[in-house]
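User: Predict Bacterial dipeptidyl-peptidase SH3 domain-containing protein's structure from this.
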Amino acid sequence: MGERPDPARHAYRKDLADVALAGRVIASHFAAPRSKTLSSAADLHQSPDENSERVARLDEGAPFAMLDSRGGWAWGYGGEDRKVGYVRVDALNG
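Assistant:
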């Protein structure tokens, strides 16, 4: 399979990965991201918890590729540098 992609910039977990990573990572399921935009500026978190480490600050209008949504949180990657993390669902449009 070769060198594993950087998880900070490539969306994959044991249970789910971006379909673009098929053949490069092992995951139970693969999904095509759904294109969203930030309706307001929001923090991108390492885990679905307001108290978790902040990975990045996404500006209003920034793109977000959503792969999963549950418990009020969306998981995917966002911004120009495609950082992976969790953002509150209510901060997304589309």
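The mean pLDDT is 96.
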